[in-house]
Amino acid sequence: MKKILLLTLTLFIVACQSNSTVSEEDSQIFEKNVQFLKDTWIQGYEQENFEQAISFMADSIQWHAPAGGSVGIESLKESVQFWLDNFEDISFTEGEGLPGTDVGFWGGNTYPVSEAMAGPNNVRMYGTWRMTNSNTGKSASVKSYCVLSFNEMGKSTQSLNMDIMEMLMKLMNSYYLERFYLTINY
Prior knowledge:
Blueprint: H1 2-16, H2 24-46, H3 50-54, E1 57-64, E2 70-71, H4 73-86, E3 87-94, E4 105-107, E5 122-133, E6 139-150, E7 156-162, H5 164-172, H6 175-183
Parallel strand pairs: 1-7
Antiparallel strand pairs: 1-2, 3-5, 4-5, 5-6, 6-7
């Protein structure tokens, strides 16, 4: 009887313990990817350092726009240079705008349970970018959400961003709106 009670108690304790599917190796890879983003892309913008800002990108990176289509590294470099040439005091506040947390970097998923995975090389980044237009002095802030995929070398190979203005510009098909919005209204 004691053996049955002990066995039942042991099974109960084991069943109640958390069944974490995240390995220590996956956790370390995820943390390394997040720190790399902070040290390169974010700090590069904040310190107005072009080479640092683009150093997280693999040569094969593809940026997938919310309104469709994708571009490679040369277009992304032009974009980074545009922002550095036209804006100053650029900063990123991690997690700002997420309800109930200030954590801005997430990986893997828990739900749906049938699709749960650790996914340390897919990093979701949430937060707010702030900047001041160098020509007008106007300040702006933009809520940001993107998903970045990393290769085994620790470089980003894909970026999917949510940018409502880019979608609006695509829908309106207006070169003028793009230039006006990016250079005048900030």
